[in-house]
Amino acid sequence: MDKKITTCATLLFALFIILLSLTPVNSHTVESWDKVFHIILYAFFTALSYPLANNVKQFYWLCFAVFIFGGTIEFAQSFIPGRVMSAYDLLANTIGIMLIIMITRKRWLA
C-alpha cells in the first residue's frame, strides 16, 4: 500500500478514536467487553501504522507514539462529562500494541 494512503488511513483512524473516546456520555457504565474493545482498537491502530516504518527502530517509535496517544486520550477523558481516566484502559491499549509487536517481530528479525 502506498505510504500516503497508509498515512491518511492512520490519521483518519486516530481521528475516529478521538471522536469515539472524547464524546460526552450521560453515564459511565463499563461494559464487560470494554477492555477487549480497547485491545482490538489499539492493535488495529498499531497494525495500521506498521507499514509506515522502514525499520524496527521506526516501528518501535511509532508504537511509542500510539501508546502516548492512548495516554493522552485517557487523560483528556478526565475533563469530559461522563468519561473517566482509566489506567486499565491504558493497560488494555498497551496489550493491543504489544500483540502487534509480537506478531510483527519475526519480520524484523528475519
From TrEMBL:
Phylogenetic classification of the source organism: Bacteria, Pseudomonadati, Pseudomonadota, Gammaproteobacteria, Cellvibrionales
Span of domain VanZ-like: 31-104
Keywords: Membrane, Transmembrane, Transmembrane helix
Superkingdom field: Bacteria
Annotated protein name in UniProt: VanZ-like domain-containing protein
Membrane-spanning parts: 37-53, 60-80, 86-104
Matches recorded under NCBIfam families: vanZ_1
Keyword Thylakoid: no
PANTHER family found in the cross-reference section: DOMAIN PROTEIN, PUTATIVE (AFU_ORTHOLOGUE AFUA_3G10980)-RELATED (PTHR28008)
Statement: the UniProt record of this protein carries the keyword Transmembrane helix: yes
